[in-house]
Amino acid sequence: MPRPQSVPAEISPPAPARSLRAGHRDRNWFSLCAAMFVVAWGGNQFTPLLTMYRAERGFSELAVNTLLFAYVIGLIPSLLLAHRLAARWGTRTPLVLAVPVSALGSILVAAGSHYPALMFAGRMSTGMALGIGMVVGGLALDSLTTSPGRAPRASAMSLTSGFAMGAGAAGALAQWAPAPTTAAFLLHGVLCVAAALLIARTTTNSPVRARPEPLERNRILLPRAFHLLVIPAAPWIFGALGIAYAVLPPIVAPQLEGFDTAFSGLLCLLSLGLGFVAQRLVGRTAGRSGPARGIGLTLFVAGTLAAAFAAATASIWLVVVAASVLGVGYGLTLVGCLRDCERLAPPGRLGTMTGRVYCLGYLGFGLPTAIAWLHSSYAIGTPATLLGVASAAVAANVAGAAILRILSRTRASRR
């Protein structure tokens, strides 16, 4: 029998070469997700410790919520600058820097457990690392795939799993491990070392198009749908989490008999875990991002109303239900907004749009601070404030959708 002719090497490359390239892509994908996971872990591990700092350090409600919000002060500038860093150095170098900066934040918070100013600096450091990791990591993942929706979905899931695991581990260590104010931060430092080794060995250093010059920027305007649909949704992404695990736990803390730190960690793990599952179940096609965002916003409003009722009744079960609904709302709104950015972005503007979504989203973490300030300064109760938050979310998003529809009809009629 004649042997089949082999295909020339220049036409079909050897299978080992193809496997090697695929192996590199898989390893790079895993390393990028690991870096985003670790910086997200560092950003959220402080949250379940709020009750511990209240009880053991005597910090006021306003003080601990200000420390929670502190990392947003470091995060927003890094979000705005991250695209520029990636355009200048590629995607690898900023991520190599972000992981040690996150570890530094943990060291400062652990060392400053009696010194709020040092803790504030540490929280800002973790925020800077998180901002770089979110934007640059998302851009790097986007460069490794051509499948619509895959990169923002992986980005959202990496961040959400890091938020969840960091909060859950910190709550458990603070409740049952020795050295409750340092154990969680030491664990994060170990994880940062492992992630730094992974990201340092990546072979991807994708070039990112620089921001358009002023004249070019005037020609490449961001879409109306981004301003009127995505921007009004963004502040409630992390606002949902701020309510779930900073506003709700103190409501029922007196009923928990010393297990308030563990309960706070459980709420973090529950809300973020359900958010992760929701992101995992979102369809792969980019066309589904609109329904994901709309359903997420609806669940945010429902969860906030449930949280208001839980605050009025001090019911532990209602607190758990409200945190669960808010977690799913967070997950769907985040992945929907990111996929809208991917679908709507003009050339060279994806990083800009993603950064704006995250900036506005993280402003939502100011909700617990605002609620505590209104309560301490004007004696406005938590239920009334939460009702106002739900009303504001509905008004902003309904108004944006209505304006976009009017503009679309006007534009169609002119044609």
TrEMBL record:
Principal subcellular localization: membrane
Annotated keywords: Cell membrane, Membrane, Transmembrane, Transmembrane helix, Transport
Transmembrane segments: 29-50, 62-82, 94-115, 127-144, 156-177, 183-204, 225-247, 259-278, 290-310, 316-338, 359-380, 386-407
Cell compartment(s), UniProt: Cell membrane
Biased composition (Pro residues): 1-16
GO MF annotation list: transmembrane transporter activity
A GO CC term assigned to this protein in UniProt: plasma membrane
Membrane topology according to the record: Multi-pass membrane protein
Protein name as annotated: Predicted arabinose efflux permease, MFS family
